[in-house]
Specification:
24% strand, 12 helices, 44% helix, 8 strands, Rossmann fold, 8-stranded mixed sheet, single chain, alpha/beta, 309 residues
Length: 309
């Protein structure tokens, strides 16, 4: 499963060195993330709890951790990658600040990848491959239909409705993308000729979209369950990705290949679940083109939210 390699990949994409790269190639991204989180911190009600929870914290690459710690009684970092969170906390120079940061290692999705892996293991895929692509993708759709997404996921040692600031930091699209990629990786392994064929199968596409929405709904409910009355929620999410092949054309739409990441229904669901205090949008470059590998970037939506009740 891709989440099993999360710690290794994060050493390349998170932390102080990565932050320095972003300052050079995507400074607006760092500025937007930091500004939104700090503004949300100032908007929480006076009577709201002074605990801050950051979901998908990783190494806190885009998070103004020191400022958040100074303004909070406690900051709780939640991520599956324990080593990354330790690196993020270690960047705080003062031991007193480090002591106010608590780390919780947890799968924020509630174990969706493991649930899907169990569904995949129930099928005889070699037999299905022998029956053709339609049969294979019907079975893949059945796996997605049967995969549970805890709603909301239960996180250890975090009190519900007791956090004045709850931040979801660029993790939403990963929660459903990683398990979906695990499924496609498996199909490519058992039938290499099936690569790309999923686009032709309506039942699979419908099941994948429904799976994305179940995971998204569960995550939004998790944010709601953690926030104190009068608390503020920050949701940062990549909503579209793009690839480009030419240096210096990162803002030139004619050189981009776009990939939607979240379903359109996400935006309606967000409005139905929360009061949107602020909404911002920006783009950032995550990788420059290199030889035959295209560069990559993302369109981000950043929200400051309040629970409607």
């Amino acid at each position: 499963m891709r989440i099993d390699n999360l710690s290794f990949s994060n050493t390349q994409t998170q932390g102080a060195q990565r932050r320095a790269w972003l300052r050079l190639h995507a400074p607006q991204h760092l500025e937007q993330c930091s500004t939104l989180m700090l503004r949300a911190m100032r908007l929480r009600d006076e009577g709201a709890a002074r605990c801050t929870v950051i979901l998908g914290a990783g190494a806190c690459t885009e998070i103004p951790l020191a400022t958040l710690v100074r303004a909070s009684e406690e900051v709780v970092l939640v991520d599956l990658d324990q080593a990354a969170m330790q690196r993020g906390r270690a960047e705080l120079a003062a031991p007193a600040l480090q002591h106010r940061v608590r780390l919780i290692q947890a799968d924020i999705s509630g174990g969706v990848s493991q649930h899907l892996a169990r569904q995949i293991a129930r099928h005889d895929w070699q037999h299905l491959v022998s029956q053709g692509a339609e049969t294979v993708f019907d079975a893949a759709a059945a796996c997605l239909d049967a995969c549970t997404a805890p709603d909301p996921p239960v996180l250890p040692d975090i009190a519900e409705h007791d956090n004045g600031l709850v931040i979801s930091s660029l993790v939403l699209s990963q929660l459903f993308s990683y398990p979906l990629l695990d499924l496609l990786d498996h199909l490519q392994h058992v039938g290499p000729h099936l690569l790309g064929e999923q686009e032709r199968h309506r039942r699979y596409q419908e099941a994948a979209q429904a799976f994305r929405m179940r995971v998204i709904v569960a995550h939004l409910h998790l944010l709601h369950s953690l926030a104190d009355h009068g608390g503020i929620i920050v949701l940062l999410s990549d909503v579209r990705g793009f690839a480009f092949n030419v240096h210096g054309t990162d803002h030139d739409a004619t050189h981009r290949r776009w990939l939607p990441l979240v379903p359109r229904a996400f935006f309606d669901l967000l409005n139905a679940t929360f009061t949107i205090v602020e909404e911002h949008q920006w783009e950032w470059i995550s990788d420059l083109p290199e030889q035959q590998r295209p560069g990559r970037g993302y369109e981000v939506k950043g929200y400051i939210l309040k629970s409607k009740d």
